[in-house]
Design a protein that fits this description.
The protein has 339 residues and is α+β, with helices and mostly antiparallel strands. It is built from 9 helices and 14 strands. The protein has helices spanning 12-21, 28-46, 53-60, 74-85, 98-102, 148-159, 239-242, 246-264, 302-312; strands at 2-3, 88-91, 109-114, 117-124, 127-131, 139-140, 163-168, 187-188, 227-228, 234-235, 279-285, 291-297, 321-322, 327-328. Strands 2-7-3-4-5-6 form a 6-stranded antiparallel sheet, sandwiched between helices. The protein has a two-stranded antiparallel sheet with strand order 1-8. Strands 9-10 form a two-stranded antiparallel ribbon. A hairpin with a 2-residue loop joins strand 4 and strand 5 (127-131). Helix 2 packs across helix 4. The relative contact order is 0.12.
Length: 339
């Protein structure tokens, strides 16, 4: 039996952590306390320069660490794991983590996020499992000792816009004893998952690890036509490309797209603040809607600010805008009070 919390409200962050740790370690109240503490730290930082218009606007906004439905931020989940177990959540796109992703089977767990939904992959009994609270039971993605499917699973998730976080650390707790500290229904046999009450009975137990059968992936037929330029003239594909197999053409396309994305990315480098010099606080709203408060010296430039933001969202292409209406910030401009 494996520990598996199923979805309640928008508490997938809580379920993700507990499924990752295989036990009822965190309640919604525990995570809410962490979110409150983070909010207080951000407010304190914003008020260092006094009750400015920016600080007043920040104070009037809702928390960026938890919403009314119970959806928690990555900062909350990271702090919870760090506080209790000394485990760290790190974005797999960071340069220092790329080597880890070459052999992901050496890790113990991954946390995934997309569109405010959290779930995890966990290695248990020398097998990898997908523990998603929207499913009735964990789903096995590798067989015992054979981890060949893990790399492809992570690649597919990344290409489908899931953010993959590596769980680092060695203080993993032992799986919680069955039926202790949580309802007995939280321990499930993946080979015989409970029936989804919202699904017709004829689908119950029809597949391993899921209540509903998997839909067969649509067959993809390689493009066989000819490309046209905007002027309408035909241009045949180069012979060296046309002679490649479908898989080789796909690999080439993925490589080209990664190269283009890499050209648009900003190098990451956190800002180092000189506390003896004048400082200011900057509020940044990320593309995913989350917010960050950044402390910088008046002499820091927009280029340095971009590099700092890139360290918060590694591997993601972005542009930095400010003012109202928003306009792109110029390189070399200082981060002083007029900023």
């Amino acid at each position: 039996y494996l520990y598996h919390e199923r979805q309640e409200a928008a508490l997938c962050g809580q379920h993700c952590l507990n499924n990752l740790l295989q036990g009822p370690h965190f309640t919604a109240g525990d995570l809410a306390d962490i979110a409150t503490a983070l909010d207080q730290q951000e407010r304190k930082l914003m008020l260092e320069a006094g009750m400015t218009a920016e600080a007043r606007a920040f104070m009037s906004e809702d928390s960026s660490n938890v919403d009314a439905s119970g959806n928690f931020s990555i900062q909350v989940l990271s702090q919870a794991l760090q506080n209790v177990f000394g485990l760290a959540l790190e974005d797999s796109r960071r340069p220092e983590n790329r080597s880890l992703m070459q052999s992901p089977d050496a890790q113990t767990g991954f946390v995934l996020n997309r569109h405010s939904h959290w779930y995890c992959l966990r290695k248990l009994n020398n097998q990898w499992w997908s523990c998603n609270s929207t499913q009735m039971a964990p789903e096995r993605i590798t067989s015992s000792g054979n981890f060949s499917g893990l790399s492809s699973e992570l690649r597919n998730l990344a290409s489908d816009n899931w953010t993959v976080f590596v769980v680092k650390g060695d203080r993993w707790p032992q799986p919680a004893p069955r039926n202790q500290g949580a309802p007995p229904s939280n321990w499930v046999d993946p080979a015989s998952p409970p029936r989804d009450p919202n699904e017709p009975a004829e689908f119950s137990g029809s597949t391993f690890g899921n209540a509903a059968p998997r839909q067969e992936a649509p067959k993809v037929e390689a493009f066989s036509g000819q490309g046209r330029s905007l002027g309408g003239s035909k241009r045949p594909a180069p012979a060296e490309v046309a002679d490649l197999s479908e898989e080789e053409q796909l690999a080439m396309a993925l490589s080209l797209s990664q190269d283009l994305a890499g050209q648009a990315r900003t190098p990451s480098e956190p800002i180092v603040v000189d506390e003896a010099s004048p400082t200011t606080t900057l509020r940044v709203r990320m593309a995913d809607g989350s917010k960050a408060v950044i402390k910088a010296n008046h002499t820091h430039t927009v280029d340095q600010l971009k590099r700092h933001v890139a360290s918060l969202a590694p591997g993601v292409a972005f542009s930095l805008k400010g003012g109202f209406p928003p306009k792109p910030l110029e390189e070399g401009e200082a981060c002083g009070p007029p900023f």
